[in-house]
Amino acid sequence: MRWLMAMALVAGLNLPATAQEAFEPPAPPGIGSDLLEAATETPTPDRPDPAAVLPTTPDPPAGETPLEPADTGMAPQPVAHPDPVPTPAPAEPAPSVRALLRDLWRSEVAGGLTDLGFDAWLAREVGTGPPAAPPRPDTQPERIRAVSERWESRTGPVALGQAGRVVTTFGAAIPTAFCSPLTVCYIELEPGEVLTDTPSWGDTARWQVAAKVQGREPETVVLEVKPAGDAETTNLVIPTDRRLYTITLVNDAEVHTPILSFRWPDSEAHAIADRIAAREETEAAAERSRGGPCRHAGAQRCRNVHRGACRRRA
Fold first, then answer.
1. What is the Cα–Cα distance from 141 to 122, expressed in whole angstroms?
2. What pTM did the predictor assign?
């Protein structure tokens, strides 16, 4: 476009203003306005013709196609864009550790090396399974020691009784009586139970134990226990005509057991058996009084067979 305007200026053409505006290009970015004005203004004696400073292109030799006029360098050059960086293909996810372990477990199962499930096999291999049981004692002293330790840690049922009683089950565990200094606590035996010897305890210097009797027909033996201020934990053994008691005595200034009492499963079982025998004897006596087939008291089998018939007659 500027080349055409320069040629028109050289030829002395007087273009109208609208035509000059049509040929006047917009100023490209980065190009100074002075150079644009020099290319479009009318030459004067004090300002040379802009076309004179423009480079001229020589005529091409005969038979050759003339070349296009060279650009003056004023036109904007295309911006070179860098080649786009190729996006790498997504990598395949690595197999998880659990998947690798499962493959190893399958290979061992297929090879007959294990018959465990995956979780059990994994626990065995990494050592996270349940702790191994301690070795069983081989000698008698070791076995006695192991069983004694089990008795020390064994617990039994404990219930709240009447009138300050703490009731535990005899034979379920070794009971404990908490006694405070300057305070008396009692250990109550079964009604009708009789001492066969003097009770024994470990620390006779700092613990006082005395046997007393409470009630009549049947009498109940109670043991009065009192510790000194510096008494240590000890044990108490009570021999009777029915059983042998062993009790742990603890000196505790904050916890106090007023009365340590018991349930006796063997006595309860005997009492149930006695009630059943008494009821059967009563029924047999009623059958004999009515002249039924069960007239001999010792014929337990006869009573069992004819009990239904005797009840139906009644």
1. 38
2. 0.48
pLDDT at 116 over 90: no
Q: What is the per-residue pLDDT for 225?
A: 95
| Average of per-residue pLDDT values in the chain | 74
Contact, 296 vs 287, CB < 8 A?
A: no
CB under 8 Å, gap of 24 or more: what pairs does 25-29 form? 25/1, 28/74, 28/75, 28/76, 29/76
Cα distance between residue 314 and residue 287, in whole Å: 9
What the block records as the tokens of 193 is 């139970």
- Report the distance separating Cα 299 and Cα 161, nearest Å: 43
Between vectors from CA 15 to CA 11 and to CA 18, what angle results, nearest 5°? 155
Predicted confidence at residue 304, as pLDDT, reads: 57
Instruction: Tell which wins on pLDDT, 257 or 47.
Output: 257
Exposed/middle/buried for residue 173 (C-beta within 10 Å: 0-12, 13-18, 19+) = middle
